[in-house]
User: Which sequence fits this backbone?
């Protein structure tokens, strides 16, 4: 039995959920998200709770049960509260700034990196060395953070680069004389 799948998804106030066979649309203050469920699960609504149950006792139905429930939970949480990822820019002369709809990154290359901010994603730079990425879709927020981090991953000797806030960078010892 799925430990995650057996719990219901609670619908907070201000969130509207529409279920049509395998499709579900969730509307909230942060936007509108939709998803199509696999054939192996059934989604039902009881008052302010959504239940995800396997259609049969087949192995695939039980495998999809917890994952589909988690995806549904992410939809509801995204349109009501949203998701945020924080990045830190570490290094002498490394900085980030938002100019209009473009994130400008100075990461020690001979040129600045201009990252166009995707629709539905909001990027803020409270300081020159921190970036906050927020949006309703958890997958898109994480993907944007991963792409920005990939421009200059933190290196293990001095820790310079773009890292997630709170990420531990394993340090290596340099050359010995």
Assistant:
């Amino acid at each position: 039995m799925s430990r995650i799948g057996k719990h219901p998804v609670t619908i907070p106030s201000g969130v509207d959920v529409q279920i049509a066979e395998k499709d579900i649309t969730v509307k909230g203050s942060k936007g509108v998200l939709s998803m199509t469920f696999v054939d192996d699960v059934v989604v039902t609504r009881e008052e302010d709770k959504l239940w995800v149950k396997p259609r049969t006792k087949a192995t695939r139905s039980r495998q999809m049960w917890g994952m589909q429930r988690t995806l549904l939970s992410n939809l509801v949480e995204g349109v009501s509260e949203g998701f945020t990822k924080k990045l830190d820019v570490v290094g002498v002369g490394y900085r980030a700034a938002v100019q209009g709809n473009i994130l400008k990154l100075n990461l020690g290359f001979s040129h600045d990196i201009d990252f166009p901010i995707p629709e539905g994603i909001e990027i803020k730079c409270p300081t020159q060395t921190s970036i906050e990425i927020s949006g309703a879709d958890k997958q898109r927020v994480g993907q944007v953070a991963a792409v920005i981090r990939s421009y200059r991953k933190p290196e293990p000797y001095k820790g310079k680069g773009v890292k997630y806030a709170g990420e531990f960078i394993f340090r290596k010892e340099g050359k010995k004389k």
Remarks:
- The longest helix spans residues 59-80.
- The first strand starts at residue 9 and ends at 10.
- DSSP finds two helices and 13 strands in the chain.
- Residues 158 and 171 are 7 Å apart (CA to CA).
